Amino acid sequence: MQQSRIGDGADISILRNNLGKRNSTVDVSFHGELVKLKIPQGNIADLINAVYVFAVLNNFGINFIKFNALSSFYRPLPRRFDRSRIGYKENLTFELIDDAYNSSPISIQSLLESIEIREVQEKILILGDMLELGMDSVKLHQSILENQLLNQFSKIILIGEIFSQCEKSDAMQSFLNVDQFIGSINDYISDGCLLVLKASHGINLYKLRNFFDKEAISVQKNIDWFVEDEAYNLYSKQNTI
C-alpha cells in the first residue's frame, strides 16, 4: 500500500501491509525508526488499527518488541473478522468469517483484499446493504458490485433493498432481507467452503450466525483453524499409499 500518515503532525507512517493467513505484519516508520508490528490472523483493518494502538501504548513505555509479544494474545471482537469452524451436517464442515458488525465501501475493500490471500476450494460471500450513506447510496452499492475482487467468490448473495436496485452479474442472487434468505441457506453452502458475512448491523446478519449456532452439529469460535488446511490434509490421507 502507499505510505500514509497517522494523524496531523504525528511522526508515524504506515509503509507496507504484509497479509498472511496465520500472521500478518505492518511496516511502520515511527519517529524515524523502521519497526515491524505483528498480529495473528489479521486483516488489513486490524493491521491499521494495530498501528494506532502501538502509537498510544508507546507513550506508556511499550516498545514494538513488547507490543509484538502482547499481540500474540489478540482476539477479534465479536462480528469483526470473527472466525468459526462450523460442523453443519454430517460430512459438511465449513469456515465462517463474520465481519457484519458494520459496513462501508472502505471496510468492504479491506475485507475483499484480506480474503484474497486464502486458497479455498470455494468462497461464498453474503453481502448486505451498507446503511446511512446518503444520496449516493445506490451508486456506492453499484460500485461495490463492479469490484474485480468479487471474482474470487463462486457465489454472492446480496441482502437488502439497496442492493436489490443494482445491476447484478449471473453469480449474484438477491434477497430483500435475511429472513427471506435463511430458508435457502442449504442451497448455497458446501463442504470445505469459506462463507463470509459482511453488512451493516441493521441488516441483521446476526440472525444467520444465530441460525448456525442453533442448527449446527458443532461450532468452534476464534480458533487457529483454516478450512483449506483440513481439506488438504484429508486429500493427502486419501492419496497416501
Could you give the order of strands across the largest sheet? 9-8-7-10-6-5-11
Q: Span from first to last CA?
A: 45 Å
Radius of gyration: 19 Å
Low-confidence stretches: 1-9
Order of helices and strands: EEEEHHEEHEHEHEHEHEH
Number of discrete helical segments: 8
Beta-strand residue percentage = 25-35%
Residues in helix, %: 25-40%
Mean pLDDT: 89
Core attributes:
about 240 residues, alpha/beta, four-stranded antiparallel β-sheet, 8 helices, 11 strands
Polypeptide structure, described:
The chain is of the alpha/beta class. The protein is 31% helix and 27% strand. It is built from 8 helices and 11 strands. It has helices spanning 44-58, 64-71, 105-116, 137-145, 161-164, 178-182, 206-215, 227-238; strands spanning 4-5, 12-18, 23-30, 33-40, 82-89, 92-98, 123-128, 155-159, 172-175, 194-198, 218-221. The protein has a 7-stranded mixed sheet. Strand 1 and strand 2 (12-18) form a beta hairpin. The longest helix is centred in the first third of the chain and has 15 residues, at 44-58. The N and C termini lie far apart (45 Å). Residues 1-9 have low confidence and may be disordered.
